[in-house]
Amino acid sequence: MADRLSVFLVEDEALIRMMMADMVEELGHHVVAEADNVRDASAFAMTAQYDFAILDINLMGVYVDPVADLIERRGKPFLFATGYGPELLPSLLRRRPILRKPIALDQLRIMIDSLFPDTPAKAPH
Question: Response regulatory domain location, by residue (predicted)?
């Protein structure tokens, strides 16, 4: 099994956030910080100790790109979880992985493996 990773989860819909947290746990990782708005997410992005982040693109009508920028400045990997397409992302962030909602457990596993390709649990393609 891959090392247990710590996850920063940003999602404004409480039920979706709980479902995603459950999936992260099911994959053997753990959520160490959660936020549902850009203000809180920005604070956590700079202070929380996490291995990677999962970001919803639109938080209560506000785009998450300032949070993504802070995470990128820390050198932490992240992916977007959204029902939107990459055209809504700032151009510099379009190269980031996008997990399409509704999210399936296998899709999340593949995305995490792509962020951490050196983990021993990565399945061959």
Answer: 6-116
Structure tokens at 59: 């938080």
Token couple for 72: 């990128």
Rounded CA separation 57/81 (Å): 7
Strand-pairing partners, residue 45, are none
Report pLDDT digits (tens) over 100-121: 899 999 999 999 999 998 765 5
Cα 12 to Cα 4: distance, rounded to the nearest angstrom: 25
Task: Quote the Cα angle for 35-92-89, to 5°.
Answer: 55
Tell me the per-residue pLDDT of 30-73, one tens digit each, with 9 for 90 and over.
999 999 999 999 999 999 999 999 999 889 999 898 999 999 99
12 near 36, Cβ under 8 Å?
yes
Q: Where are the domains of the chain?
A: 6-115
Kindly report the pTM of this predicted structure. Answer: 0.89
| CATH code, residues 6-115 | 3.40.50.2300
